[in-house]
Amino acid sequence: MLVVGFAFSLVATRPYDDALFHHARAGSDWSHHYIRVQMATSLQTTQTSDLSTWLVEGDHDFPPLIHVVGTLLGYVVGHSEANIQRTGLLWVLILGLAVGLVAARLSRSRPLGIAAGTAVLLMPSAHAASMTYYFDLPMTALLWLSAAVLMATQDKWPLRAGVLAGAICFLAGLGKWTALPMAPPLLLGVLACLPPGQRWTSIAVGRRVLSATALTGTLVVLLVHYWKLSTRSWDRMLHMTYGGDLAQSAAPDGNDGDASGILSQLASKLPDVVDLLAHINLDSLFFYPVRLVFCVLSPMIAVLVIAGGVLWLRRSTLGWPLVGCLTAGHLFLLYFVIPDLDDRFLLTLAPALVLAAVFGWQTLSEPLRSVLGCLFVCISLWVAWDFHHTPPEPPPDPGPGEPHAHTRSALEKAIDAADVLTNLKGPGLQSGVDRQWGWSRADDVADRYFPLRDIIWEGLVQCEAQVVLVENLLMPLDVGGLWWSYRNALAALEGEHTFQSIQGFEDTMFSTYSGDTIQLEAAIESDSVVVVARNDLSHPDAPLKRPPLLETGWRRRALADRGETEGASHLAIWAPVGSKLCSQWAGQPGELGPPR
Questions:
Q1: CA 456, CA 466: separation in Å to the nearest integer?
Q2: End of a domain among 215, 246, 273?
Q3: What is the mean pLDDT of the chain?
Q4: 67 and 78 in contact (C-beta within 8 Å)?
Q5: For the chain, give me the number of helices (H) and strands (E)?
Q6: 85 occurs within a structural domain
Q7: Count: domains in the chain
Q8: Selection from 514, 437, 434 nearest residue 34 by Cα
Q9: Residue 587, number of CB atoms within 10 A of its CB
Q10: For strand 467-471 and strand 501-506, is the pairing parallel, antiparallel, or unpaired?
Q11: Per-residue pLDDT at 80
Q12: How far is Cα 178 from Cα 342, in angstroms, rounded to an integer?
């Protein structure tokens, strides 16, 4: 427990970079946190009879479980994104306990169960994914919890085992619908396992059939009931995975989901799913083995896992049906069904590989087990420290005529991230292929979204304005002002100063980000409006260039230096001439601090 506690402390103390632990590249990256904050706000006035409606509020591009859990945890640890993302370690804890229980039941050895659970708790990709507010780790943890419950109870209480496992599997689906194709190989493997020393009899087969029937029935009933409330995230999963038209299904605006159309919807996608040769190619053949070593286990841990796996294949009979079913099922899904290449799909498989390695390790002599166990713990702790605490190196000075690193286009960076072998170096865990929703090293330097945002926000609060106009393109790749929407909603939830209206503008066109839609003339007349806009001072002798909105009648109240980045050199806060707002900056424009 001390080892796990120390490892978790390494993860939880990772310095927060104001960019969702290196994941935020655009305002849209706050979309999931915005949904969570909205749900936390509406929960305060939701009656018990309306909880199903409240649940559907979180059913957007993905199902609502993580937002429900994040909402409840927010009332314990605080609602800010940094606090909520650190609670991802709870999912790692659930995953480790579940795998430990599976190992203990398979081997009838509590010490071996503790060893397997500890190994999974130290698994690099698990604690790496815990720092992301996303859906893959919760789904994985709940799938393995479903397997653990089934494993623990299927021999004594087969009906109860199936019902409980089906309910937990449904929760995994509410974490991410990918759980539905991921679950059958795992649960079939559990059903195919017998405790050591037992043989298949008609009674054992009957219990497995009863458990499987109860599990399937419970899962189907719960899914149909939920799909009657909303099929929005289900439709979007099919749309994002296989393309095609986006169905007009239930959404938080109150439309009823069409549960009866699910089977026909699946049937319409079957040609895409069963076209086995459409998804397999040379890239995918190399992708998953390479990423498993570098981005899921880390090279040094992978060596130990492979060695333990070889021992398991040669010396042990524990868990063969489970590991075999799960591995075969994943190979089929990853190479023939799922078109996207993403190392997050390996999260559900990785604990089974670690489990097999632990079973192989158990066949060694006690002195050798002790040495290898200590080696595994030391390497795992180093990998955790290296991933979460290695500071980034300063960028090299460009040579004559060479562009700065930040001038590389977003497309070039995306191509680099998608390359199977790009940036796979060193013995530690590497960043996932999807730096936005996967996991990212602390030294993985990337452009952060709007580094000045919190400083600008604090300055606007001090201005005591009620209306804020924000230039639409303060940063590249901004999407719909989602960070501004999130930040104002978070302030309201935590009882801080909020703005009556935050609106984006481009030229003379306005769009509402948060709050009411207020006419500019009325806001100027009531002396309640300030503006945040780009202000390029890179050529001091050139005439000051203003957005058309600010051509006349406005005065700069504060400037913020954006440092070395694309676009304008500064951001500025403007107020109408003669306004009493932003009185803390009398005379010359004030200076806001550098990006944090």
A1: 15
A2: 273
A3: 84
A4: no
A5: 23, 7
A6: yes
A7: 2
A8: 514
A9: 5
A10: parallel
A11: 92
A12: 13
The 3-state secondary structure of 421-484 reads CCCCCCCCCCCCCCCCCCCCCCCCCCCCCCCCHHHHHHHHHHHCCCEEEEECCCCCCCCCCHHH
Beta-carbon contacts of 147 under 8 Å, excluding residues fewer than 6 positions away, are 98, 102, 165, 186, 187, 189, 190, 322
Task: Tell me, yes or no, whether 383 lies in a domain.
Answer: no
Strand ranges across the sheet with 509-515: 509-515, 501-506, 467-471, 529-535, 570-576, 554-561, 590-592
Name the residue range of residue 469's domain: 453-592
Residue 14 is assigned to a structural domain of this protein? yes
Residue 423 gets the label, from left (phi > 0), alpha (psi -120 to 50) or beta, of left
Measured CA angle at 54 (ends 53, 58), to 5 deg: 110
Residue 269 counted as domain residue: yes
Q: What is the pLDDT of residues 167-224, one digit of tens each?
A: 999 999 999 999 999 999 999 999 999 887 788 889 999 999 999 999 999 999 999 9
- Mark 224-247 as b/e (b = at least 16 C-beta within 10 Å): eebbebbbbbbbbbbeebeeeeeb
190's tokens: 């559990």
Helix H or strand E segment including 225: helix 202-229
Angular region, 21: left φ>0, alpha ψ -120 to 50, beta rest: left
Q: Are 468 and 501 in contact (CB under 8 A)?
A: yes
Of 273, 293, 314, the position where a domain reaches its end is 273
Distance, CA of 308 to CA of 163 (rounded, Å): 35
Dihedral (Cα; 236, 241, 246, 249), 10-degree rounding: -30
Question: Is the pTM for the entire model greater than 0.85?
Answer: yes
